[in-house]
Each structure stands twice: as C-alpha cells, then as structure tokens.
Amino acid sequence: MEKRKVYMDYAATTPMKKEVLDAMMPYYTELFGNASSIHCFGREVKSALETAREEVAKLINANTSEIYFTAGGTEADNWAIKGYAFANKERGNHIITTKIEHHAVLHTCEYLEKYHGFEVTYLDVDKDGIVDLKQLRESIKDTTILISVMFANNEIGTIQPIKEIAQIAKEKGIAFHTDAVQAVGNVKVDVKELDIDLMAMSSHKIYGPKGVGALYVKKGIKLHPLVHGGAQEKKRRAGTENIAGIVGFGKAAQIARINLDNHIEKLTSLREKLINGVLDKIPYTRLNGHRTNRLPGNANFSFEFIEGEALLLSLDMLGIAGSSGSACTSGSLDPSHVLMAIGLSHEIAHGSLRLSLGDMNTEEDVDYVLDNLPKIVERLRMMSPLYEKVTKGGN
Ligand SMILES: *Cc1c(COP(=O)(O)O)cnc(C)c1O
C-alpha cells in the first residue's frame, strides 16, 4: 500500500493550483515580451500585467493603481517599512510594531534601529497573542510615524483587531502598515473598510507561485523605492516584471476571491474537528492562539513532556507534514519568539506543533492525524522521566 501523505503545512507554503499554472505557461514561451516594450510583444504582456493587478486589487478592495508587485511578501514588508521610514524621517524616527511579527518585519525594524537612528517599540501581546490597544495608545509619541501590526500570525493564527489599530493610527496622523500575508485569501480583507495605508501580500501563501507578492500603497502615501533602476511599477519598484509569476498571482487572487466563503467554511470546520479531537484525546495539551479569533486553517498545540522536533520526525515517518513553529526558525534551538511572547516557558514552547490546513485537506486527513498523533505523543512521553513521575500519581 502506498504511504498516505498528509500535508498540513499550508502556512509555510501552498501548492499551486492547476488553473494557476495553466494561466502562467504561455508567458514562459510565446508571450515572452518585455512589458516596457512598445511593440505588440510588449503590449500583450503589459495587458496581462494590468489584468493581474486588477485581480489582486479586487481581492482586497483596493484601487488597481494602489497595487505594486514585488518579489514576495518579504520584499513587500521591507519596502513598506524602510520606504515609509526613509520618506518620512523628517517627521519623526519612532516606529511601533509587535513582538510577534514575522522576521520580515522584525529584522527590518532592527536594521532601522541599528543603522539608521530609528527607535522602535515592540508591543507585548496577551496569552492569546492579541495586541493590547491601551499599550499601543500609550506607546505613541510625537515622533511616531509608523505602526506595523500583522493582520494574522503565521504561527499561532491569531487575528488582530486591525480596524481598531488603524483607527488609532489615523486619529494620531500615523501611517499604518499590516503584514497580511497569512490573512489575504483566508479571511475577508477590505483595505477601504479597515482604513489600511500599507499592506504586504504574498502569492505562494494563496496557491500561487513563489517569489511574487505585492504591496498595497494607499493613494497619497509617501514612500521611497526599495529597489532602484528602471521605470517599472510607476517608478516605485524597478526591475523587469516577473510576468508569468504575476499572472499566476492574479489567477490565484481571482480564485481566492471567488471561493473565499467556501474556503473559510471548509477550513474552519476541519480545524474545529482537529482542535477538538486533539484536545480531547491527548492530555497535558494546550492550544496556542485565540480559541476562535484565528485563521480558519491554523491549529497550534503545545504538548507537555515532548520535544517538538522528535514529534515532527515521527509524524513525517507517517507521511504527516507539520511544523514546529515557523519554517524559518527550524534549525535554530531558540524557541519561537511568538510562543515566548504569549508567555510559554521554554520547555512548553519546545513541545509545540503547528498544523496548518488548506484546500487539499479532507476529513480523512484529519481522522488520520487524530488516529496517529495521540499514539506518537504517548510513545514519546514514555521516554520522558518527568512524564513518568506525573503519571505514576506522585507530585
Ligand atoms: C510567508 C510570510 C512572509 C514572507 O513572504 P514570502 O513571500 O515568503 O517572502 C511574511 N509574513 C508572513 C506573516 C508570512 O507568513
């Protein structure tokens, strides 16, 4: 029998949809023109570029002219923060962000502190991973120019009160950027309703190709370019466009918009089955992230008396692909900064498992995990002297 393979790491990346690849293919061969050329080869490609831009804009209710393509979510975050900081530094040097951001935001902020004289406040989050709005208000200074708070967390799935945060920023005349890489395509994101100024997105998290993303820049926002060169993207992001990638991103955005309600319903139901099953069947387990206010496909658990890496390897042997935190931190021994920020001890954080669901998952996949995970956890715990102490009924 062929080994069952269950992919539950959609927060790390998603498989490309067939329709997405089909849409992209011609742009690798017959439609190879450079969008900047004035001849027909260029014009064909230019129009595909603009169609993709419309699709991305529609997904988030932006104007088409507010979408700028980048080489991914990381570049979009870098551009938003550095670009805004450099263009507005005469107004102040203070930036507010959170302790649970993706490294694309955190390391960018640290760079601005270290080399460019900016001052950054990193807000705490509560045990569910939610930013304290009172602390946010109190941390605003006369010199604050930018607030950057992620829409939804990639590790624990918690969704932030984005509308309230944007409102606070607006009242104080501060720009608001959000890393919405995990949120777009998974929850409703409407930049007009939420009053967002800058927003980062990534194609490969929504079933599109890797190496493509976009930054939403609200009309009127002052931003320096991050990449200098030619006049592409209205002179704000130079470099010959990755047309095939952008076309794929556009197609993925269109599919995400059309399927959003079904996608949310399906994943929420699978997630609930998974979370309830795991909490039911496995003692000494906690769910990380907000119980309900979380990404439809995100489940993140901490199992006491367990080492996360060992758990991942055992799951992998059964064909189950999960993550022990964010893919970028595996290989380092430090526990995830997000799990530390929600107050977990080192030991508990080390026993964490993120299972992130997506379009290809089925009820059977969840059943397969619920059949196998409890056994694996029990087997690994048997090797822990601490666990033995606890189960022998001592103190
Ligand atoms: C994946 C991810 C990014 C980085 O996007 P890339 O396109 O992989 O560069 C940034 N922020 C969050 C929250 C992510 O999940």
From TrEMBL:
GO molecular function: 2 iron, 2 sulfur cluster binding; cysteine desulfurase activity; metal ion binding; pyridoxal phosphate binding
Classification via InterPro entries: Aminotrans_V_dom (IPR000192), Aminotrans_V_PyrdxlP_BS (IPR020578), Cys_deSase_IscS (IPR010240), Cys_deSase_NifS_bac/arc (IPR017772), Cysteine_dSase (IPR016454), PyrdxlP-dep_Trfase (IPR015424), PyrdxlP-dep_Trfase_major (IPR015421), PyrdxlP-dep_Trfase_small (IPR015422)
Pfam family, one: Aminotran_5
Positions bearing N6-(pyridoxal phosphate)lysine: K205
Binding site for [2Fe-2S] cluster: C328
Principal subcellular localization: cytoplasm
Residues involved in pyridoxal 5'-phosphate binding: G73, T74, N154, Q182, S202, S203, H204, T240
Active site: C328 (cysteine persulfide intermediate)
Cofactors required: pyridoxal 5'-phosphate
Keywords associated with the record: 2Fe-2S, Cytoplasm, Iron, Iron-sulfur, Metal-binding, Pyridoxal phosphate, Transferase
TM annotation in the entry: none
SUPFAM superfamilies in alphabetical order: PLP-dependent transferases (SSF53383)
NCBIfam families: FeS_nifS, PRK02948.1
Biological role stated in the UniProt entry: Master enzyme that delivers sulfur to a number of partners involved in Fe-S cluster assembly, tRNA modification or cofactor biosynthesis. Catalyzes the removal of elemental sulfur atoms from cysteine to produce alanine. Functions as a sulfur delivery protein for Fe-S cluster synthesis onto IscU, an Fe-S scaffold assembly protein, as well as other S acceptor proteins.
Subunit structure: Homodimer. Forms a heterotetramer with IscU, interacts with other sulfur acceptors.
Name of the protein in question: Cysteine desulfurase IscS
The species this protein was found in: Alkalithermobacter thermoalcaliphilus JW-YL-7 = DSM 7308
